[in-house]
Amino acid sequence: MPGKLHPLPLTMPLVPLTILGIETSCDETAAAVVRGVAPGPGEILSNIVFSQTEAHAPYGGVVPEIASRAHLEILDSVIGRALDEAGLTLAGLDGIAATAGPGLIGGVMVGLTTAKALALAAGKPLIAVNHLMGHAFTARLTHGVAFPFLLLLVSGGHCQLLGVGGVNDFRLYGSTIDDAVGEAFDKTAKILGLPYPGGPAVEAAAAHGNPKAFDLPRPLVSGHNARKSADFSFSGLKTALRQLAQTQSVGVADASASFQAAVVDILCDRTRIAMGLFREDFADALPAATPATLVVAGGVASNQAIGAALGALARRENFVTRIPPPRLCTDNAAMIAWAGLERLATGAAADALDVAPRARWPLASL
Ligand code: KG4
Ligand code: ZN
Hints:
This protein is an alpha/beta fold. Helix content is 41%, strand content 19%. It has eleven helices and ten strands. A hairpin with a 4-residue loop joins strand 1 and strand 2. Helix 5 runs parallel beside helix 7. It is globular. The N terminus is likely disordered. The protein binds 5'-O-[(R)-(carboxyoxy)(hydroxy)phosphoryl]adenosine and zinc ion.
């Protein structure tokens, strides 16, 4: 006679994983150790970020050759510090995660190759992480945000709105048809004679300026020329600012404030459209009256004016906003370790040691 049947557990056992993360896709050399259970929040045992800003500042932007050489010189010691601060050796890890793209290929190769060597030497699983997935899941590391959520990803290389339904479920609602929003901040800073990186400099200058001083364009936003999609465009805004700066003497504070106000309007308008698309897409999981979650991630998410405006929009649209703290919005390795943890926690196999670095790797392709 068969005995009484025990119900199968509905979830995987809640065993915390401890992961080393390595990030070298742009101008930050970073290593971190995180521990936790998906969906988070997790614990950051160490988070070392060595910024190469000074090395690139004279050129007004990141120079790929300088970046990869600097990663190569410092990465070993950054990893050593991350393990020391976490009080661990390689033996205490459950896996080693590294950014495998998208990004500057020389830098990605340095980080990924180092991770492969460590994984091989220590006999630990290698997890090749998509950098954008790192930004996307940071709000799970910090706030334990549940799936599904709407993601506004705003960084130096990307500007996208995505519905995130699971670890491998990304649905693209809109992306930029020209510049990324962080790039627009960086170029604006250059036009106005502000230092690199431009985002924090423009935000600081804007705090003392009049956002209505100059009437700058809001490309693709409601009004004439309006598009019903959630796509972004920033190049017209940048060109208008350049022309303005060439034809009249503009105050840096007023120009910064006017530029930032235009960016805020563009981001809010596109996000509002994506909120509708997200509600339709996930209608089964999220009945109409249930609050949904808007996650804002990437370097530009550390901008306080943008965060405040999106927070107000979210309240009007029955969304809750989750924005990680600034040091986890800009590039770091804690987010890479956490994305690796999420992948391992799904039971996914480790990546092969010949996994290739990628300069391009859209999230929606996952
Ligand atoms: O995510 P991130 O560190 O690197 C990329 O993956 O691109 O983002 C860097 C970008 C830069 O363009 C920088 O100017 C922008 O984020 N940024 C900001 C702020 N802090 C960084 N933009 C606006 N306001 C800020 N406070
Ligand atoms: Zn980034």
